Amino acid sequence: MIQIGDKIVSQDIFDVLFACDYAACKGACCVEGDSGAPLDPGEADQLRKYLPLVEHLLSPQAKAIIAEQGVSYFDEDGDEVTSIVHGKDCVFTTYDEHGNCRCAYEMIYYEGKSDFIKPISCQLYPIRLTRYKDFTAVNYHKWSICKCALKRGKQLQLPVYKFLEGPLTRAFGEEWYAQLEDVARLLQEEQLET
Length: 194
What we know:
Blueprint: E1 2-4, E2 7-9, H1 12-15, H2 22-25, H3 43-54, H4 60-69, E3 72-74, E4 80-82, E5 84-85, E6 89-90, E7 93-95, E8 101-103, H5 104-110, H6 120-124, E9 127-131, E10 136-140, H7 147-156, H8 160-163, H9 165-172, H10 174-193
Parallel strand pairs: 2-10
Antiparallel strand pairs: 1-2, 3-4, 5-6, 7-8, 9-10
Helix pairs in contact: 9-10
């Protein structure tokens, strides 16, 4: 574990090679799991704010869930997460004619209709954040549905932290990310010396 500011970073984000292979997985992380996407404080407000812009993209089942319980709920661990359909699909998941998943919020973001791309936990995946009183743990989450991303990451020789440069910068700022890169260089130098 490496400390950068008040973040404790797992060695895995430097060592694991990872690059999403959307053509292979079709966005499975939006529809697999036992609860919705974790939300940071204020993100449910963003989801509600832009809901009118994405409603037309959502399934009738998703709209019914949102009408009944809202855009989010608190899971068994007490964490606020996005609402889900069929016990697993995020309510904001859309499908194209080939069965590929996309986030409705991400779609309107890239259309220039919103300044909110999607919850940071979604954008940071496969990194998961755990917030404690004095620090935030930054860990790599291993999941079998991402085997294709490990294969592609290996082909590209792309470590997790480089693949997620944009989301990590969004989450913690440019200065923090620059420090992360400095640590990565030092670790690489140490490996070359051994």
